[in-house]
Design goal:
With about 140 residues, this protein is an alpha+beta fold. It is built from three helices and six strands. It has one domain: Gcn5-related N-acetyltransferase (GNAT) (Aminopeptidase, 3-Layer(aba) Sandwich), CATH 3.40.630. The protein has a six-stranded mixed β-sheet, covered by helices on one side. Strand 2 and strand 3 form a beta hairpin. The longest helix is centred in the middle third of the chain and has 15 residues.
């Protein structure tokens, strides 16, 4: 997960190294889901759902290591997160990604996510793009 943060800092030319290391405990609790994909004992991708409100969960920490990209692993994780969101009874998923992350934008748009106004922490952040996906009842 720290590799994700380093990659994003480089992409957005953010030199602030004070970012706290990722703590998986922030994605635990009622209504949260944390998924990971491994190959030969190595973590290659991850993604999570975090309860946003009673009706919504936010897709968080979607990341695939560079050597594993282009093989559908991220798509498979996102599909499983959608299924888990339905099983948890959420009516929709929301997410935020950056405007320089073309592969992520394409993944989310192919999955049916549509742009919405920036929400919560992301309000007013120009290079943040927020999306939502309605879920069918399980």
């Amino acid at each position: 997960m720290n590799a994700q943060q380093r990659e994003l800092r480089a992409l957005y030319q953010d030199t602030d190294e004070r970012t706290e290391p990722f703590d998986p405990m922030t994605l635990t609790g009622e209504g949260c889901v944390l998924l990971a994909a491994e190959e030969e004992g190595e973590l290659v991708a991850c993604g999570a759902l975090k309860r946003w409100d009673t009706e919504s969960a936010e897709v968080k920490r979607m990341y695939t290591v560079p050597d594993a990209r282009g093989r559908g692993i991220g798509r498979a994780l996102l599909e499983e997160l959608q299924a888990r969101g339905q099983a948890e009874g959420y009516a929709r998923l929301v997410l935020e990604t950056g405007d320089q992350q073309a592969a992520a934008l394409a993944l989310y748009e192919r999955a049916g996510f549509r742009r919405i106004p920036n929400f919560g922490y992301y309000e007013g952040i120009e290079n943040s793009l927020c999306f939502a996906l309605p879920l069918k009842p399980a």
